[in-house]
Amino acid sequence: MTITPVKAFNDNYIWIIGEGSRAVCIDPGDPAPAAEYLSRSGQVLEQIWITHHHHDHCGGIDALRRAYPEAAVYGNADIEAATRAADNGLQIRFGDALATVWATPGHTAHHLSYLLENSDGLHVFCGDTLFSAGCGRVFTGTIEALYESFQRYNSLPEHTLFYPAHEYTAANLRFAAHIEPDNADICAALQAAEQASAPTLPVNLAHERAVNPFLRAGLPQVKARVEALIGQPCDSGLAVFAALRELKNRF
Predict the structure, then answer these.
(1) Could you tell me the EC number(s) of this protein (predicted)?
(2) Of these four, 74, 142, 146, 239, which has the most CB atoms within 10 Å of its CB?
(3) Distances (CA, A) of 44 to 41, 64, 129, 168
């Protein structure tokens, strides 16, 4: 099984899972690069998985289904082009692997993640909920829901690989360094991201626990730094998380 990032727009990744002659496409906002990859690889699109309703994640569904009319489209009820309803707990078979759908709201009210388990381990296609060293903005969801989605991610094994839908890593690490200027892991990751010529993704959970301020909101040093920046106390991990999101919005 292969998992390939296909670049789209300015900073999107369409993830394509390949197994022999078959493929799954995740969040095809732009159909052209996905179709070009499938043609070049000789794979037939069997399934499309959609994390949320934003156009840069689902705008290419109709064009891809015209080319591959048998492809099943999994998505929440707010995805008009979905042919299979996806909700928390649904399991999807692809080849020898099994994907489990998690509801991970916050960025949007109905955001989904797809957790694919195969012989290589656990792979989480997290859309715009988690980015390397960051998290998605809150649009139609709530900060409370986004915080709970992060707690759920953080319950996974440390070797779990995350596949975000955007290349925001360097910018996020600059904010992380603003929050923890003495964090050696963040400094090293930022240097690597700024020098990278290839995608910085996927990333494993152990790495994110070391560099992602939104997974580190419960740490005393992060709490103290946030309180100093906003000039008031935070009485919970959620309060620190919410303050971090507001600070990132203005960074």
Answers:
(1) 3.1.2.6
(2) 146
(3) 9, 11, 28, 30
Number of domains in the chain: 1
- What three-state secondary structure class fits 38? helix
Catalytic residue among 27, 30, 53, 107: 107
Q: How far apart are CA 80 and CA 120, in angstroms?
A: 33
Q: What is the CATH number of the domain that holds 195?
A: 3.60.15.10
The one-character DSSP state at 217 is T
Per-residue pLDDT of the chain (251 residues; tens, 9 = 90+): 999 999 999 999 999 999 999 999 999 999 999 999 999 999 999 999 999 999 999 999 999 999 999 999 999 999 999 999 999 999 999 998 999 999 999 999 999 999 999 989 999 999 999 999 999 999 999 999 999 999 999 999 999 999 999 999 999 999 999 999 999 999 999 999 999 988 999 999 999 999 999 999 999 999 999 999 999 999 999 999 999 999 999 99
CB 29 within 8 A of CB 43: no
Using the CB atoms, write b or e for 140-169: b if 16+ within 10 Å: ebebebbbbbbeebbebeeebbbbbbbbbb
Residue 166 known to be catalytic: yes
Q: Considering 52, 110, 111, 123, which one is annotated as catalytic?
A: 52
Residue range(s) defining the domain that contains residue 97: 2-250
- Examine the residue annotation and report whether 111 is marked as an active-site residue of this protein: no
Task: With CA atoms as reference, report the closest residue to 85 among 94, 70, 97, 72.
Answer: 72
pTM here is 0.97
